[in-house]
Amino acid sequence: MFEHQTFEAILQRMLDQVPDDVDKQEGSIIYDALAPAAMELAQMYTELDVILRLAFGETSTGEYLKRRAADFGVYKKEATSAIRKGIFTDENASPFNVPIGSRFRLNDMVYVATEKIVDGQFRMRAETAGSVGNQEFGNLLPVEPIEGLGTAILSDVLIPGEDEESDDSLRKRFLQKVREPGTSGNANDYKRWATEVVGVGAAKVTPLWNGPGTIKVTIVNNDMQPAANELVAQVSEYIEQVRPIGATVTVVSATGKPIDVSATVVLASGYTLQDVQDVFAQQCRKYLQETAFSTTYVSYAKIGTLLLNTPGVIDYSELTLNGGTANVALQDDEVPVLGSVVLGV
């Protein structure tokens, strides 16, 4: 908006206000007196342009987006800790119950036993918040000695740890709140309540799905993939706390529909088939995430475009999706999940 307010333009306007019978050339007293002020004003206009972008939800970022969203009751999701399963045995390989609060280390991560599941199995919470707690599996070492402990293994991810919400995700929820306002429990309210839960990437609401007074909320995780049972339970519990009286709400996970892609490609010089296949698979995965709950099919033409735009691909033929050469339809509760990607030459 203020891009025309440059140092040169401001200085020229200031010099135009000085009578022509006064020396205004570069290096003159008048010029040297006005130039610093023009420079400061140009810097001010630059900063005003930045402030203007930060004032609107579509262009704001960082702390300013966080404050803007908070004005409307939309708050940034903080990072959460992974909940894992720990399996413990004694020296005779029998199930062993460790004390609640026991701390165990796996490389640089520390996990704390928080709740007993069954004998020898405990819920373990990562002390470091974020997705880093989801990544490693293997033998745990007690931070302090535990008498009678034989083996300790970190296994399943029960509730994935989530990183702090991205600006794009917060912006999406904020714009949804102001553009699709809720009204005492309409579909927009249920969509907003579901996506307020940490770990939910998107939600789809089906009113009257099983008769009057019934509502179905279908969710996916932050990767736009089917949600874990624990996340479904969390969303259900949260909606029960905030929903209006009278509604019967069912929360379910979306069903993943595998999308298998195969094609024959012509490679450019210097590229390997594996490198091209890896990049293409990544592009397909991103596209499928974008289609979750937004379209009713996976586009055959779009996949072809992605393949043709993959670095190293000159041309392709015999492209199939799930064995066919047409769009792949998605049911109401389905989200596409990338299956196999097979490229040949």
UniProtKB/TrEMBL annotation:
Protein name: Putative phage protein gp47/JayE
Domain (Baseplate J-like C-terminal): residue spans on this chain: 259-343
Pfam families: Baseplate_J_C, Baseplate_J_M
Entry similarity comment: Belongs to the Mu gp47/PBSX XkdT family.
Stretches of the chain forming a coiled coil according to its record: none
Domain Baseplate J-like central residue range list: 183-253
